[in-house]
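User: structure tokens for this one?
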Amino acid sequence: MPPTNPARRHALTDAAIDLLASSGVHGLTHRAVEKAADLPTGTASNYFRTREALLVATAERIIELHHADTDQAVKRPATLVDLLTESLLTAATTLRARYLAIFELQLEAARRPALAAALARLQDTAVLVTAGHHDELGLDIPREKIPAMIALYGGALFTLVSVPPEHVSRDAVRNLAEVIVHGCQPPA
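Assistant:
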């Protein structure tokens, strides 16, 4: 049974997030994670026996951090466009490494069924969490539309984190958020 020290587990997965963002999935090894987290050799393999377990745990950590951020965001009154704008802008700038890492994991999942299954479970959770946030905000977005909204958000985020950071502007991000919420048609 793997050790249960949550602080050390977070240190390892947080280091893995940074490594995925800086070196890609091929730069992610147990030893590289231990070095980045400044932990003794063998620590990562004590927590995550396989590389795949490390990848899954890192994806779970990214989603945990994302949900914690969105939990805080919905406590501040704002329109859905404003919330999405702030979320996308923060994700593409301040939290850029986190989202580069999740895209690395999503691409790797195309070749790793266990990682793909873990990401699918996380996607199902994201739909439920988003629906709960919509309820808290009093939004009347139909439940069946939430997966599409999440997909549009993810596509917008991929676009934003894959361009040089200096090309990300509040106006461009707000435009993306408006299209996610209202579509491409001008308001009636």
